[in-house]
Each structure stands twice: as structure tokens, then as C-alpha cells.
Amino acid sequence: MKENKSIPATNFPLQGGRGLLVILGAGESGAGAAFLAKQKGFDVFVSDFGAIANKYKQQLQEWQIPFEEKQHTEDLILNATQVVKSPGIPEKAPLIKKLREKGIPVISEIEFAGRYTNAKMICITGSNGKTTTTSLTYHILKDAGLNVGLAGNIGKSFAYQVATENFDTYVLEISSFMLDDMYQFKADIAVLLNITPDHLDRYDYKFENYAASKFRITQNQTPADHFIYCIDDQATAEGMKMHGSNARLHPFSITNELESGAWLDRETLIIQTNKQQEPLTMSINDLALQGKHNIYNSMASGIVAKVLELRNDTIRESMSNFRNIEHRLEHVAKISGINFINDSKATNVNSTWYALESMPKGVVLILGGVDKGNDYSMLADLVKQKVKAIVCLGRDNARIHEAFKDILTEIVDTTSAQEAVYVSYQLAKKGDTVLLSPACASFDLFKNYEDRGDQFKKAVMEL
């Protein structure tokens, strides 16, 4: 196998085509953007300050796209016509500041790729639930026979799909970091699930800045477009007063009956987006995704389907047979009458709150990892109601002990997935649930949340 070598910036040949497009970050989105840019006639150079995964190095070599890793050659980068930036690179990074000072446009992969497709855009954001809602929406549309792609924070790069596929519709999971670098891009259908404090270090520790970022999902929308949002979410309701929307509004609520949108009549879900059409009605007990937060997710996906005028029977069937994504409230196994649930994707406290809220009593909760300044107090009531023991999975668990020592007598430290599963199994009894929902990032003991979830599942199956 040939050795992977970067192509030195000094050897980079300018072809004089559509200008130099530099891509910062060579992950899934960066590699895809590079491929699309080359296809569209740009001189392309990829630069990653870290090491590039072999998979993406091989792709860039096959496509004959110059790249560098473990460095940024500023002289070259600062001569770019435009820059496509990985969502993970913060605005405060010195190189980004220099690009801004020179007036060089810095955009996201979504912004760039959106210029080269006329497909209908369904864009979903929110602090919690966006992966589940994006996956469910895609599932409903695909089941209905639409020619639809899945991209954004999930699946294959949007740019790569624009370059290689010909979808009529895309369902895109969009993070606030992506939204920050989107300008002309427009969602035909925008979904905002909720806004809760997350990633505040990227927003000067100001919640209002983070909320404003989320509302960029509505930018450029016209009265011909649609905005779907949770009216029960206080931050979203406040944001609507400040930011508003030009689009047709479709709120959803589980506490209030609405004239249009989605709401509950006791245990019946009702979705009405057009008075000339028959509303969708469905028992919440028939939804594939259970728990209050998942009713919200199903409402949002159902409204998208109704806006697209899909048949009620098709929507109902898809919403009842959907299988949740891996690492998000994923049922792993039932062993000795104990349910094991993998929610490794819960990397913040809000996600863990949603997971606990959907559980019955008798939970052994596996919690911990890299703490992003978590406020565990919001979990206190649910822990009192539902949790019998906490098993910590992380190198530093002091803040977890401090938060729950007055609520629980059983708080146990572990340092591997195998140990955490074994200890949890000993603490649980028939009818209980062992829930991995860490509320923390995974980088102290694992490569990423997928690795954490995979190791958890492997350990469960070895019991």
C-alpha cells in the first residue's frame, strides 16, 4: 500500500480557473467540499491543523487534490478567493481572524454546496433531538417514495452528495456552528426543536448569542417557505418575539391546542397544516419513539410530511415503524430481565434529562466523561424519581458525586465500559433499566461517543 503523503503547499499549481478555494479541516464535510469544488473548476487546497484520517487522505489523493496536515501554510491560505471552514474551527482561531481582516469569505460546507443544487431543503436544528428528528423525517419521506438525501451533521457529506447524486429533496441536520457560516443559503422548510444552553464557550458565554445562531435557520425564508417550531420551548418563544419569521408558521405543542401545527388531544396526536386537507390523527401509543421529548420530535417530522402533502396513512405507518438511530436511546439487550439502553450520544445534561424523562422507575444511570461545565442540578428531580444508583464512567467524577451525594447512597466510580456494565448489572434487578446516558463528552476514555457506545454494547453482550 502506498504511503500517504501530503502535497507541499509550495508545489501547489494554480490553474487560474475560478480562483483558489481553501478548505480548512479534512473530515467528512471538508473532503466532500473539496471534491465538489474541484468538480466545479476551482483550484482547491485542503489544510488541516491536525492529522487527517487515512480514509480522507486516500480520497484526496485519488481525486488529485493537494492537501497538508498538522499545519496551516498561511501565505497560501490568505491568498484564497474563499474558504470553506470545518464547523469545529472556532471564530476566535487566529487564522480565521486573519481571513476576516482580509475580507476573504469564510463559509460552511452547507453554504457552499447549496449553491450547486436546486433540491428542496428541509433543515432541522435544535439543542437536542435533531439527529432523531432528521432521521425520522428522512425515513418518512423515503418510505413515501420521495427521491431524498440525508446529510449535514449525519451521513455522507452534503457537498459530496451534491457532486455525485441527483436528489430532489435533502433532509439536513444543521448545528449552530454550521449556521454561523451560512449566509445566502435558504431552507424551504426550517425546523427549530428547542434551544437549551450548549456550546456557550463558542458564543462568549451568552445564551442570547447561541439562541440567535439557532434562529439563523430561518434566514432568507420567504412567505412561500415554512417554519416549524416548538411553542412550548421558552427560549424559542422568546426568540420568535425578537427574530420573527417571514415564512408560514407551524408551531407544535403538547400542552396547548393550536389552530394550525401539531398538538395533543389527550393521547391523540393531531397535525393540521392546511384547513383544506384532512388532519393527521394518531395515538401517541402507536409512535415508534416513546417519551415526551420524542412526541415533540415526531410532531416536527409529521408537520414536515404534512407540509409536503404526503398521505396520512403513509405518515402514520412510517412514524410507527421507525427504528431509532444508533447510540440514541438504542435498546441493546434484555438480560436477566434487565433492559440495557445505549444513549452514548447524550453528551450534554439536557440530552440526559430527555433520556431519563422517557424511562420508567428503577434506573441504574451510567454518567460521566469530559464535563463541559455541566449544571447537574436540572437532573436532580428525575434522579430522585427514577434512579436507584449512578455508575460514573470517567477519569474525574468529583462533580457528579458532589451533585448527587445527598440524593443517592450508591454512586460508584469505574474507568472502562466493561467495568461500568458489570457494576451496573450487579446493582440492577429484574425489571430495572441500565441506561448509558453520560451527559459528557467521551474523550477522556474513548475516541468518540460512537466508540463509547460500541464498547458499552460489546460489554453488555459479554455478560
TrEMBL record:
Q: Where is it localised?
A: Cytoplasm
- Predominantly, its location class is cytoplasm
Listed GO CC annotations: cytoplasm
Keyword annotations for this protein? ATP-binding, Cell cycle, Cell division, Cell shape, Cell wall biogenesis/degradation, Cytoplasm, Ligase, Nucleotide-binding, Peptidoglycan synthesis
Catalytic activity of the protein: UDP-N-acetyl-alpha-D-muramoyl-L-alanine + D-glutamate + ATP = UDP-N-acetyl-alpha-D-muramoyl-L-alanyl-D-glutamate + ADP + phosphate + H(+)
Q: Give the E.C. number(s).
A: 6.3.2.9
Q: Where are the transmembrane segments?
A: none
Pathway in which the depicted protein is active: Cell wall biogenesis; peptidoglycan biosynthesis
| Gene Ontology molecular function | ATP binding; UDP-N-acetylmuramoylalanine-D-glutamate ligase activity
Domain of life of the native organism:
Bacteria
GO BP terms in the entry = cell division; cell wall organization; peptidoglycan biosynthetic process; regulation of cell shape
InterPro entries hit by this protein: Mur-like_cat_sf, Mur_ligase_C, Mur_ligase_C_dom_sf, Mur_ligase_cen, MurD
Q: Where is the Mur ligase central domain?
A: 124-304
Binding sites annotated in the UniProt record for ATP:
126-132
Q: Which Pfam families match?
A: Mur_ligase_C (PF02875), Mur_ligase_M (PF08245), MurD-like_N (PF21799)
Top EC category = ligase
Q: Which family does the record assign?
A: Belongs to the MurCDEF family.
Fetch the PANTHER family from UniProt.
UDP-N-ACETYLMURAMOYLALANINE--D-GLUTAMATE LIGASE
Q: What does this protein do?
A: Cell wall formation. Catalyzes the addition of glutamate to the nucleotide precursor UDP-N-acetylmuramoyl-L-alanine (UMA).
Name of protein = UDP-N-acetylmuramoylalanine--D-glutamate ligase
Organism of provenance: Mucilaginibacter ginkgonis
